[in-house]
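Anyone up for a design puzzle?
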C-alpha cells in the first residue's frame, strides 16, 4: 500500500515537471524504447539503499553487477522510500510484452525499477549504470523499455585461433552491458576441436593442436595436427569444468551459451582423429562425415549427449554450412543410404543427416539451429535457420513457418574491415563500417507473419585472420553495439549520427575497462572519391560493352551507365558502385557524341586477392572519330602479384588528342578472376 501511495505522489510530481527537456537523448546503448527526461537527478551516496525483491540468484547477479562497477549500496530489506533504488518483479507491467522488459522511474529522491523477470531487473541495472556514467548521478527520468528481438547474439570462432575461458568471460561482461543475451561458440572446425568430450579423447589430445600458431600459416601450409604436449604445439580446448564455469558465468549475466558442433562438413580435425568416420578413411583429406556409415551417428549422438549435459541452452547449433559433398557420390555407403532412403541427390543426403540429428536433439527436449545450407535438400521440421549467405535463407525459413536468426554476411560479419583498409590490420571481409552494420533491419520487407518468426540478430566473428585477443576485441567493439541496438531498439527511431555519439561514449567505457576497442572517434572513413560525384566529358554519354566482356549481373552497379555516371566506388566492391567483370576483362566504348579535344582518360581498379579480385595486367586506351578505325593512344602494363589486403590503382593516360569514341580495354593477368572498376573519366 505504501508503495502505491508513494507512486501516486511521485507521479503527480513527475507530471508537474515532465517534458522540460524531453527529446534529449540520454546516453544509453541500446537506445531504450521510451525515455522521458525530467528535471533534477538522483545521486548515489554512501548511504543509498538497494532493495531487490526477486529470487536470490537475481539479487546476486544485480548486486554483483553494481559492485563490479564500483557501487556498494546499503542493502535494504524493504523499500525505504527515499535515497533508495528499489527493484521488484511484477507479473504484469502495462505496455511491456517481453519478459526482458523493465521500467525505471528515477526522481531526485528515489529510483523505482520494475520488471517481469530477473533479466529485466538486470537490464534496468545496466541502464542505470550507463546513466550514472561512473559518477553515481542518474538523471531524473522515466524509462519503459523492452527488446525488439528475443535473440541478440555474438558468435565467436574459437577454432581457427583458440581463446581461453577468462577471455570469454571478459567478453560476456561487455556484451551483457549492451543487453545481448546469447554467446554462440563455434567450438569445432578444421583448425582445432575445442571442447573436451570424454568418450572421444583424441579430439582434444590430438585434433586440438597444431604447429603453426597463425591460422593462415597452418592452412596454407601443412594443415597437420600434433599430439598435445608436442614442443611448440599451438591450440587448446575447454575442459568440461571450463565449460561449466563459462556457462554459469554467462547465466549470471542472463546470457545463454549456444554451442556449435559442426556437421557434416568443416570436420577435417575429427576425420583425422577418427578416420573411420569419413567416406575414404584418408587422413587429412576429408572434411565431410560419411553419411552412409552408422558410426557417424553413433559419434555425433555421443558427442551431442555430452554437449547437452554441459550446455542447458534450448538451442544446439549443428553447423551445416559449406559441405563440399565431393566423396558422397563415390562412397558405397552413402550411395546405399541414398537408395534405401529414396534420396535424389547429395543435398537430400545432407538433409537426411540433419533431420536425423534433429530427431535425436529433439528427443532430449532441445532444438537445432543450422547455417542456412540446412535448407538445401529439405529443412528439418523444427529447425531454426541462421541466415548468413545474405538474408534469403532466413526469409525462406520464415516463409515455411520456421524461425530465423539473421546474420547476413554483408552486415553482421565482424571479420571485415571496419575502416579504410590501409589504416587497419588485415581483415577477411570487405569494408563494413559501424554505419553499415547499423543500417541493417532484420525485418525489412517482411510480412507481419514472417517478421514474427525472426528470432533475432547476431554478429559473427570468424578468426582466420585474427590470432590475438587484442584483435578479437578490436573487431568486435564497437560494431557489436550496432547489433545490440538492432536487436533491442525501435527501428523507427534509429538515427546513425545520434547512435554514433553514444557508441563513441561506449568505446570510451570499453577502453577504460580494458577492452581494445577500435577508436571510433578517430575513424578515417569512406574512400574520398566515393564522397562526391565527378564531372567529366563522358558523364551521361552512351557506353557499348563488347559482347565477350559484359559486366557481371551480380556486380552490375548502375548497369549500362555505371562507368559514366560520375559515381565512384568506396572501399568495397560490394557497395553497388563498382562494376565487376569476370574472365573476359573490360572492353567498353564510350560515344562522346561529337569529336572533342581529349587530355585524360583514366579509371580506377581495386585488388583484393582473398575474394579473387585483381588488378588488370594490361590496359589499352584507343580513340576513334568514326567507331571503325581506332588508334591506340596508351598501353599500360602491370605485373599483377598476389598481396594481402586491399589496394587501388589508377590506369590512365594524359596527353593531347582528338576523338569522339573512347575505347577502354582492361585485360586480366594470369590469375584470371575478377576485375572491378567504377568510372571511366574522360577530360
Ligand atoms: C559461414 O560463414 N560459413 C557460416
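Challenge accepted. My sequence:
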Amino acid at each position: 500500500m505504501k508503495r502505491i501511495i508513494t507512486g501516486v505522489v511521485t507521479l503527480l510530481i513527475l507530471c508537474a515537471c515532465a517534458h522540460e527537456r524531453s527529446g534529449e537523448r540520454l546516453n544509453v546503448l541500446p537506445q531504450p524504447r521510451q525515455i522521458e527526461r525530467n528535471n533534477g537527478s538522483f545521486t548515489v551516496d554512501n548511504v543509498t539503499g538497494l532493495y531487490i525483491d526477486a529470487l536470490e540468484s537475481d539479487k546476486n547477479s544485480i548486486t554483483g553487477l553494481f559492485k563490479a562497477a564500483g557501487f556498494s549500496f546499503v542493502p535494504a530489506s524493504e523499500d525505504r522510500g527515499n535515497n533508495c533504488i528499489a527493484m521488484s518483479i511484477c507479473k504484469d507491467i502495462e505496455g511491456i510484452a517481453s519478459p526482458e522488459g523493465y521500467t525505471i522511474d528515477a526522481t531526485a529522491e528515489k529510483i523505482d525499477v520494475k520488471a517481469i523477470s530477473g533479466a529485466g531487473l538486470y537490464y534496468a541495472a545496466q541502464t542505470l549504470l550507463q546513466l550514472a556514467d561512473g559518477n553515481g548521478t542518474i538523471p531524473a527520468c522515466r524509462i519503459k523499455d523492452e527488446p525488439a528481438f528475443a535473440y541478440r547474439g555474438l558468435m565467436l570462432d574459437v577454432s581457427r585461433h583458440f581463446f581461453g575461458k577468462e577471455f570469454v568471460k571478459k567478453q560476456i561482461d561487455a556484451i551483457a552491458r549492451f543487453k545481448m543475451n546469447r554467446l554462440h561458440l563455434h567450438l569445432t572446425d578444421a583448425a582445432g576441436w575445442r571442447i573436451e568430450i570424454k568418450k572421444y579423447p583424441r579430439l582434444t589430445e590430438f585434433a586440438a593442436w597444431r604447429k603453426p600458431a597463425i591460422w593462415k600459416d597452418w592452412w596454407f601450409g601443412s594443415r597437420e595436427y600434433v599430439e598435445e604436449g608436442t614442443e611448440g604445439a599451438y591450440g587448446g580446448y575447454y575442459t568440461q569444468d571450463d565449460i561449466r564455469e563459462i556457462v554459469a558465468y554467462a547465466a549470471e549475466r542472463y546470457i545463454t551459451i549456444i554451442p556449435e558442433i559442426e556437421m557434416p562438413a568443416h570436420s577435417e580435425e575429427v576425420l583425422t582423429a577418427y578416420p573411420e568416420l569419413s567416406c575414404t578413411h584418408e587422413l587429412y583429406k576429408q572434411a565431410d562425415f560419411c553419411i552412409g556409415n552408422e558410426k557417424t551417428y553413433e559419434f555425433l549422438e555421443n558427442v551431442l549427449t555430452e554437449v547437452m549435459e554441459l550446455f542447458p541452452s534450448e538451442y544446439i547449433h549443428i553447423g551445416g554450412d559449406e559441405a563440399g559433398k565431393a566423396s558422397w557420390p563415390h562412397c558405397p555407403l552413402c550411395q546405399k543410404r541414398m537408395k534405401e532412403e529414396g534420396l535424389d541427390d547429395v543435398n537430400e543426403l545432407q538433409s537426411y543427416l540433419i533431420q536425423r540429428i534433429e530427431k535425436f536433439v529433439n528427443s532430449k527436449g532441445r532444438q537445432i539451429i543450422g547455417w542456412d545450407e540446412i535448407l538445401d535438400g529439405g529443412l528439418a521440421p523444427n529447425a531454426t535457420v541462421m541466415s548468413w549467405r545474405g538474408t534469403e535463407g532466413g526469409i525462406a525459413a520464415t516463409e515455411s513457418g520456421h524461425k530465423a536468426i539473421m546474420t547476413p554476411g554483408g552486415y553482421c560479419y565482424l571479420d571485415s574491415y571496419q575502416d579504410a583498409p590501409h589504416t587497419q590490420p588485415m581483415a577477411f571481409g570487405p569494408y563494413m563500417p559501424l554505419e553499415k552494420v547499423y543500417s541493417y533491419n532484420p525485418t525489412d520487407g517482411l510480412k507481419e507473419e514472417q517478421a514474427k518468426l525472426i528470432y533475432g540478430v547476431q554478429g559473427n566473428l570468424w578468426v582466420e585472420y585474427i590470432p590475438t585477443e587484442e584483435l578479437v576485441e578490436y573487431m568486435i567493439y564497437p560494431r557489436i553495439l550496432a547489433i545490440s541496438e538492432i536487436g533491442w531498439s525501435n527501428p523507427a527511431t534509429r538515427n546513425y549520427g545520434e547512435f554514433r555519439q553514444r557508441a563513441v561514449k561506449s568505446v570510451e567505457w570499453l577502453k577504460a575497462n580494458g577492452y581494445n576497442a577500435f577508436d571510433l572517434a578517430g575513424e578515417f572513413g569512406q574512400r574520398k572519391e566515393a564522397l562526391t560525384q565527378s564531372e567529366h566529358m563522358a558523364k551521361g554519354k552512351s557506353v557499348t560493352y563488347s559482347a565477350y566482356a559484359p559486366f557481371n549481373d551480380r556486380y552490375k552497379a548502375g548497369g549500362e551507365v555505371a562507368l559514366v555516371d560520375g559515381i565512384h566506388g568506396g572501399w568495397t566492391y560490394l557497395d553497388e558502385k563498382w562494376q565487376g567483370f569476370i574472365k573476359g576483362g573490360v572492353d567498353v566504348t564510350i560515344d562522346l557524341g561529337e569529336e572533342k579535344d581529349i587530355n585524360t582518360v583514366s579509371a580506377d581498379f581495386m585488388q583484393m586477392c582473398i575474394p579473387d579480385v585483381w588488378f588488370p595486367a594490361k590496359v589499352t586506351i584507343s580513340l576513334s572519330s568514326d567507331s571503325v578505325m581506332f588508334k591506340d593512344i596508351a598501353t599500360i602494363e602491370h605485373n599483377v602479384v598476389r598481396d594481402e589486403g586491399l589496394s587501388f590503382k589508377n590506369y590512365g593516360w594524359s596527353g593531347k588528342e582528338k576523338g569522339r569514341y573512347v575505347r577502354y580495354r582492361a585485360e586480366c593477368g594470369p590469375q584470371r578472376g575478377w576485375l572491378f572498376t567504377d568510372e571511366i573519366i574522360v577530360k
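A detail worth pointing out: The pocket of acetamide is lined by residues 321-322, 371, 388 (CB under 6 Å).
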